[in-house]
Structures
1.
Amino acid sequence: DIQMTQSPSSLSASVGDRVTITCRASQGIRNDLGWYQQKPGKAPKRLIYAASSLQSGVPSRFSGSGSGTEFTLTISSLQAEDFATYYCLQHNRYPRAFGQGTKVEIK
Amino acid sequence: EVQLLESGGGLVQPGGSLRLSCAASGFTFSGHAMSWVRQVPGKGLEWVSTVSDSGTGTYYADSVMGRLTISRDNSKNTLYLQMNSLRAEDTAVYYCACTGFGEIDYWGQGTLVTVSS
């Protein structure tokens, strides 16, 4: 099975900061990866699909990169509404696997 | 407007059964694989199961294999999760979702399953 290792598990940042979250796959998954944002009490919402494609309606401060085993989600300038938990999900093969999540908190 | 409406959650005793439903509208349900994802309150997301667009292909997490069964009725635009031999560790919010390849990303609001005596 493919394991997804996400880091960091949490981070504190200020509005305007650049934030980077990483996911590492235990095997190559091409670019079959999405990044999701989840706010308390809400369903997840995908920000990035195919590792680097921006979901329609998502602000351009979010970007994704990577292929194979190393992937990155970057928020170029953190906004108040971005404080949430972020997850990666590989859909290259079954069983699917989420990363453990990264909670982005206000410094 | 796309909607995924889960129902069927509730309190069940260990060893009991429950069937979740997810009614879809606003998109071509029969054209897409559908999944169940769960989340223990306060914890991370866990992929549970996926069924292919036709219903012939089904895939499961090891943690639920043999106890949970995913199915769909394309004539009713409805996804199901039959949950048998439930355990305390199955307690979670269960989301139905259409996500993965391509730009489509639809999620329900979730339904809470509590397994407790």
2.
Amino acid sequence: QKEVEQNSGPLSVPEGAIASLNCTYSDRGSQSFFWYRQYSGKSPELIMSIYSNGDKEDGRFTAQLNKASQYVSLLIRDSQPSDSATYLCAVKKGTSYGKLTFGQGTILTVHP
Amino acid sequence: DVKVTQSSRYLVKRTGEKVFLECVQDMDHENMFWYRQDPGLGLRLIYFSYDVKMKEKGDIPEGYSVSREKKERFSLILESASTNQTSMYLCASSTEETQYFGPGTRLLVL
């Protein structure tokens, strides 16, 4: 079992729809969870972090965390073509010098 | 504004050559990382460093070494490049919670 797994994708949604990206992790000691966005040919950039159970909203983005189910998700409301990118889920254990474990990424395409 | 720079965006090397990839950060971060990224495999950690002269192996260290003589600079060394090391190489530096990535070096080994 991979430490961090994302829904395989690619995911295609129409403009204006909600895109739902999912991630599961295997280590119950994980404490911090991150979503990075990576445009084609570019490096990853952090878009959301979440540390406690529940929802965290930032503009059109909502991160959801359920530690009991070892599940973290990212919802993108009112998806735009500019949201088309690869989304990487990353997980950090308690004390690890900032070391992250990444999922393999989900490619999202938002079509007009 | 945070900044992580990498010495080259594109690099072409021959099999057997020694290759140096350099990464510099200006954020005074303790932690620095080297990843490679390949289609379908995501980001895989090669090595990381949590202080000057301190390093730890990541998930795929074979064929690589690193050097961190100064806090701001973390170098990745391919001792004898092979074709299976053709990849995108990403450097990152971090606080305890957030990693900041450089622009990446796309390395082609012929």
